[in-house]
Amino acid sequence: MRNFAASVGLAVLGTVLTHVTNTNVVNTLESRGLPPNVADDVARDITDSITGNGDAAPPTGTGPAATTMREAMSAIRMDFAEANQWVFYGMAIALGIAFLCALRHPGGRAVTSEDPEETPTPASRPDQRTGS
């Protein structure tokens, strides 16, 4: 169960990181004069390259998208850092919830359905050394 929860948590936080980064990059590119449809396509490519699905090569060419992207790289790095902030907040909340669950956990052994009077005590067990 713990591994499943960790996998789901990583998937959710990775998705949040990707979406927030994409939104931040779109806003940055639109503020630098790119049309919304071009900004969305370029932001998706940038987000893919940041999250490991693309290449790290800077854009080549002289078009407006390539030029804007080269000029906006420091702002795009900041967008990625701000997106990570949301992931860190999510991790902190998850750790806080896990701490509260740990405080409520009873600990020790699981309760069995045996009657405690029927459980042999050390004095009533046969002596292991003498074999009786």
Folded structure, characterized:
The chain has helices at 2-31, 36-50, 64-71, 73-104. α1 (2-31) crosses α2 and α1 runs antiparallel to α4 (73-104). It is mainly alpha-helical and 132 residues long. It is rod-shaped. The two termini are 45 Å apart. 14% of the residues are buried. It has one domain. It contains four helices and no strands. The model has no long low-confidence stretch (mean pLDDT 76).
Q: Give the radius of gyration.
A: 28 Å
User: What is the H-and-E element order?
Assistant: HHHH
| Strand content bin | under 5%
Structural class: mainly alpha
Low-confidence stretches: none
Q: What is the overall number of helices?
A: 4
- How many distinct beta strands? 0
How many discrete structural domains?
1
Percent of residues in helices comes to 55-70%
Estimate the mean pLDDT confidence.
Answer: 76
Distance between the termini: 45 Å
Main beta sheet: strand number and arrangement? none
Inertia-based shape: rod-shaped
Fill in the keyword field for this structure.
single chain; 132 residues; mainly alpha; 64% helix; rod-shaped
Brief characterization of the structure:
The protein is mainly α and 132 residues long. The chain is built from four helices and no strands.
Secondary-structure map with pairings?
Elements: H1 2-31, H2 36-50, H3 64-71, H4 73-104
